[in-house]
Each structure stands twice: as structure tokens, then as C-alpha cells.
């Protein structure tokens, strides 16, 4: 076999692997994320879901869902926690968007215990979900943390990512403005 054929074959074998580890991009749909329905009734109510078992992001009763992939051990996530909490408060205190935008966090590699420690330590008011075995993290391209995805949920139940970013959280007001513009709510 000639060296060029070997090179092409190697590239073909490696390229699908590289593509599989790429974060979802703007305009794409989320990878499948099966999250446990919260046991806390306030969190269930906030998300607009009921029952028990698992749910998917598009089942959240909102027009837009902001997902933060974080880790309890990430110093940037710890530093940004008060600002992300402020984002939640800005949304919840604005009657025009309160029921249109929801915020959740997914703890990459974090157990339920670690997620609860993060929630209590940083007084996180929105639902956080563990991803102990990195299933969601891997499906999202093994992004670094914190990683934000803004997902628009359409009337017909379809959805698409309208914004994503690694770190560089600009603060609650600028980020909310970005979310409103990217999602078409403004």
C-alpha cells in the first residue's frame, strides 16, 4: 500500500472520532440529555415538569433554556456562581421573561453529593443535575467548564442552540441581553 493511501485511511478513521468530540454548534440540536426529574417540588414547578423518572431539555416549559455545564472543582465556575445566580434573579424578577427563560446547571463528573455541595456553598437558586459518569459532558464534546448553551424551544417542540460559549461570563445583565437577542425574545 502506498504511503498516501495509508495516510488517507488513517485520516478517515480518525476524523469521525474528532467530529464526535466536537461541541454542538449554533443552529444544531442538543445531544440527547436524560436528566432526572427533580424530587424538590419547587424545582419541578420551576421547570414545569411533573412525575418521576427522566426528562429531556425540550420538555421544560419555557421558550429558552440556559444550560451551564459546570464542575464543583472548577475555580472559574466558583468565581462565576454569584453572577449566574444574579442572572437567575434578573430573569425571575422580570414578569415579561420569567416564564419564558429557565436556567439549569449540569455538573460534569460531579456526583449528586458534589452537586449539592456546590448548590449549598454558592446558594444556587436554580436546578442543578449531576453528570457523575460524564455521559452528558461527552455528548457535548467534552467541553471545558464553565460552558454555556442557550437553547430555543419552538412551539412544535423542536429546539436549536442559539448561542454557546466557553467561559468569559460577562455578568448577568450583558449575558441576559445576549440571550434575549440570540433567542429572538427581544
3D structure, described in words:
It is a single chain. The strands form 2 sheets. A 5-stranded mixed sheet has the order 5-4-3-6-7. A two-stranded antiparallel ribbon has the order 1-2. It is built from 6 helices and 7 strands. It has a domain at 62-183: 3-Layer(aba) Sandwich (Glutaredoxin), CATH 3.40.30. The protein is of the alpha/beta class. It has helices at 3-20, 41-47, 75-92, 112-121, 135-139, 172-183, and strands spanning 35-36, 54-55, 64-70, 101-108, 128-131, 147-153, 159-166. Residues 8-19 have low confidence and may be disordered. It is globular. The longest helix is centred in the first third of the chain and has 18 residues, at 3-20. Strand 6 (147-153) and strand 7 form a beta hairpin. Helix 3 (75-92) crosses helix 6. It starts with a helix and ends with a helix.
Question: Keywords, please?
Answer:
Glutaredoxin, 7 strands, 186 residues, single chain, alpha/beta, five-stranded mixed beta sheet
Distance between the termini: 59 Å
Write down the CATH topology of the domain at 62-183.
Glutaredoxin
Secondary structure category: alpha/beta
The helical percent reads 25-40%
Strand order of the largest sheet: 5-4-3-6-7
Q: Rounded to an integer, what's the Rg over CA atoms? A: 18 Å
The low-confidence parts are 8-19
User: What is the CATH superfamily classification of the domain at 62-183?
Assistant: Glutaredoxin
Please give the CATH architecture of the domain at 62-183.
3-Layer(aba) Sandwich
Amino acid at each position: 500500500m502506498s504511503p498516501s493511501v495509508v495516510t488517507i485511511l488513517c485520516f478517515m478513521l480518525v476524523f469521525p472520532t474528532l467530529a464526535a468530540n466536537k461541541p454542538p454548534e449554533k443552529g444544531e440540536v442538543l445531544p440527547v440529555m436524560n436528566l432526572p426529574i427533580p424530587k424538590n417540588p419547587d424545582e419541578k414547578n420551576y421547570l414545569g415538569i411533573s412525575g418521576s423518572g427522566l426528562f429531556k431539555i425540550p420538555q421544560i416549559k419555557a421558550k429558552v433554556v440556559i444550560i451551564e455545564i459546570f464542575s464543583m472543582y472548577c475555580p472559574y465556575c466558583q468565581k462565576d456562581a454569584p453572577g449566574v445566580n444574579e442572572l437567575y434573579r434578573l430573569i425571575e424578577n422580570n414578569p415579561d421573561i420569567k416564564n419564558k427563560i429557565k436556567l439549569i446547571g449540569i455538573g460534569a463528573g460531579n456526583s449528586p453529593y458534589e452537586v449539592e455541595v456546590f448548590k449549598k456553598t454558592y446558594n444556587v437558586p436554580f436546578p442543578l443535575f449531576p453528570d457523575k459518569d460524564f455521559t452528558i459532558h461527552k455528548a457535548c464534546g467534552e467541553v471545558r467548564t464553565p460552558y454555556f448553551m442557550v437553547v430555543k424551544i419552538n412551539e412544535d417542540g423542536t429546539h436549536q442552540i442559539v448561542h454557546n460559549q466557553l467561559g468569559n461570563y460577562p455578568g448577568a445583565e450583558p449575558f441576559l441581553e445576549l440571550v434575549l437577542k440570540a433567542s429572538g425574545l427581544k
